[in-house]
Amino acid sequence: MSGRNRKKEFDIHLKIVLTETGTGLFLRQKKGLSKFRMADTAEEYGLVMENSSPASIQGFLLADCIAKIEAANIDPLSARSDIIDLAKLIVHSLLYRHFDAEMLNRVLASEIVVRWNRANPQSLIDEKAFQGSASSDLKKLVRDKAPDVEKIRKLILDPLKLGIAGNARFDNEEKKIQILQIEKFMDISNALLWYILLKFQSDWNFRDLTLVIRGCLVEYLKKVQVADYIALMIMELALASAYRSIRKEAAIAELGGPPGGIPEGEKLGGIIKSLKAKNSLVSIAWKMGGNSSSIGTERRLQVVLYDRSADLREIRNGIDEVKSADVKKRSIYSFYREKEDGKAQTGLGLYYISYLEEACERVDIKFEYLVNQIPDTDITMITLSFIL
Q1: Whole-angstrom distance, CA of residue 91 vs CA of residue 371
Q2: Cα gap 369→351, rounded to integer Å
Q3: Which of these, 50, 45, 52, lies nearest to 27 by C-alpha position?
Q4: Is the pLDDT of residue 350 over 70?
Q5: Which residues of 154-188 are buried (b: 16+ CB within 10 A; e: fewer)?
Q6: Buried-most residue among 91, 144, 258, 361 (CB within 10 A)?
Q7: HSE of 187 in the Cβ direction (CA atoms, 13 Å)?
Q8: Between 137 and 293, where is the model more confident?
């Protein structure tokens, strides 16, 4: 989540399935877990939250405590801000975590550390050497060296900040957000990284370390921008589901709306209330990671929309139509204008797939999508899969 976001709580119903790490943490704290049914009909144990703090959810994600988050039976017309902010927070948090691991790996593989380890086999610098109590000692050492840490932090970040400030392609707000992002990336960095930087700050090869870290920061600063595309994609698909559900419910109740539109005011409120009571509104699940035996799944994120209003064949035909359309000849803003004119009220989500694919390809994020149906149910699943 960007530093500009000051949201205190998400006002949506969340079901959170914990990882082994998260389950162990809650059990050690003698906190009970709830049993609940997910949108895919599976029964799970975890946390049920009506109101949740973005900071606490991000903390759980950074600590690898969450396996799945589901926003269940939600009205995207009224929860738009929460859905977008939650979607962005999840992508940002996972990228922060991946950045931390990636940057540490690059630093451990750097010439300065490799040279030290060859010359000092009895006191290797690697992750295994700083586990358990040694990890606590390392964190204390870094805290005690706070002035030196801040000096190194400025040495690494100041050239990047100057580059961002001087980039005419960004307005002042965009520059502010990018600077906050690189600061956030450094703030969550592993204590072992800071130990290495402190240890070798006077070494003749130290500049190479700073270049390695800056290069990693630049890569992830580009990657994190994809969070906006992903959030908008999810939002548009959720709105498409809501419009279909509302129209169907209005037809059943014989409540008319404006031509090509949906009922408004009290009629719309009544329909939403009825759909919610029937558990017929869209649910959105974010699944982190994957099977531990599969290579690369620790970077996987799957977003699944569970939709009772969609016709499976209609959705697949829509995707085929988008695949064959030359969407690159039209800007994303043209789709928004059509949407505002009522011409593309439910179609933007599918068209947006092409833009999301292009954005992911630019920053080496793998993206795939799939539409299928849960057997023996009327629930259509639209799955967006990413390797971040």
Answers
A1: 22
A2: 13
A3: 45
A4: no
A5: eebbeebeeebeeeeeeeeeebbbbbebbebbbee
A6: 91
A7: 10
A8: 137
For residues 2 and 177, the answer to whether their CB atoms sit within 8 Å is yes
The number of residues making up the chain comes to 388
The H or E element spanning position 386 is strand 380-387
Whether 104 and 193 have beta carbons less than 8 Å apart is answered as: yes
b/e burial code for range 205-229 (CB count within 10 A of at least 16 → b): ebeebbebbbebbeebbebbbbbeb
**Sequence-distant contacts of 355-363: CB under 8 A, at least 24 apart:** 355/229, 355/327, 356/226, 356/229, 356/230, 356/233, 356/384, 358/328, 359/225, 359/226, 359/229, 360/226, 360/229, 360/386, 362/222, 363/219, 363/222, 363/223, 363/225, 363/226
Burial class (CB in 10 A: 0-12, 13-18, 19+), 254: exposed
Residue 148 confidence (pLDDT) above 70:
yes
* Dist. CA 298–CA 294, nearest whole Å: 9
- pLDDT, averaged across the chain: 86
Residue with tokens 């803003």, as numbered in its chain = 333
CA dihedral (98, 103, 104, 108) in degrees, to 10, reads: 140
- What is the pTM for the complete model shown? 0.89
Specify the pLDDT at position 326.
Answer: 53
Give the Å distances, CA to CA, from 71 to 18, 74, 82, 180, 353.
Answer: 15, 7, 10, 28, 22
DSSP class per residue in 294-310:
STTGGGEEEEEEEESS-
Q: Using alpha carbons, select from 13, 10, 12, 29 the residue that is nearest to residue 21.
A: 29
Distance CA 123, CA 136 (A): 18
Look at residues 110, 387, 369 and name the one whose alpha carbon lies nearest to residue 223. 387
Using DSSP bridges, classify how beta strands 300-307 and 380-387 pair: parallel, antiparallel or unpaired.
antiparallel
From CA 39, how far away is CA 280, in angstroms rounded? Answer: 11
Report which secondary-structure segment, H or E, holds 383.
strand 380-387
Q: Find out whether 138 and 191 touch, Cβ atoms under 8 Å.
A: yes
What average pLDDT does this structure show over 264-268? 85
Under 8 Å between Cβ of 26 and 63? no
